[in-house]
Amino acid sequence: MIIGEYKSRVGEKKRVSLPTKFREQIGEDLILTRGYEESLILVNKEMWEKVAQGVINGSFTDKNIRDTSRFLVGSAKEIEMDSQGRFVIPESLFNHANLGSEIVFIGLVNWIEIWDAEKWQKRVGYLQEHGEEIAQEISKMSVEKNG
């Protein structure tokens, strides 16, 4: 299970180091793509195949499936790590997330999000302020789905 929050610095040529704990949990064959709220998503190939399967199983006539495919799949890049767990964030993805010199890796069970550190702090503030409302919405969705 991939969990936790780790800060890191962006080096020369937009190179970053994946935290050791995450490296051990996620493996080496990685895909990096656009995320929501100006973040990036890092997954292993096994998880990526599940994402791709959702796209494959969806109908290309469905606008939401096409848009999700364009957003996630269209920007995806295979990532090569060196022996120290470092990899380069491609320019287009770096710009999508508006990353600065400090980033945060967030483990979310099956994937890792990468955030600009300042943006992440703002997001945490938002989540703290609106946590109860968000929990209520999730609860409503669960009741509707199972109901």
List the helices and strands and how they pair.
Elements (H helix, E strand, L loop, with lengths): L1 E8 L5 E3 L2 H7 L3 E5 L5 E5 H13 L5 H11 L3 E3 L6 E3 L2 H6 L5 E8 L2 E5 H30 L1
What does this structure look like?
This protein has helices at residues 20-26, 45-57, 63-73, 91-96, 117-146, and strands at residues 2-9, 15-17, 30-34, 40-44, 77-79, 86-88, 102-109, 112-116. The model has no long low-confidence stretch (mean pLDDT 90). It is built from 5 helices and 8 strands, in the order ββαββααββαββα. With 147 residues, the chain is α+β, with helices and mostly antiparallel strands. The strands form 2 sheets. The chain has a 6-stranded antiparallel beta sheet. Strands 2-6 form a two-stranded antiparallel sheet. The chain has a single domain, classed as Chemotaxis protein chec, CATH 3.40.1550.20. Belongs to the MraZ family. Its main location: cytoplasm. GO terms for molecular function: DNA-binding transcription factor activity; transcription cis-regulatory region binding. Forms oligomers.
Which sheet architecture does the biggest sheet show? 6 strands, antiparallel
Q: Based on helices, strands and strand pairing, what is the structural class?
A: alpha+beta
Principal-axis shape equals globular
Separation, N- and C-terminal Cα atoms: 29 Å
* Low-confidence regions: none
Instruction: Summarize the amount of helix as a percent range.
Output: 40-55%
Assembly state (oligomeric)? single chain
Number of domains: 1
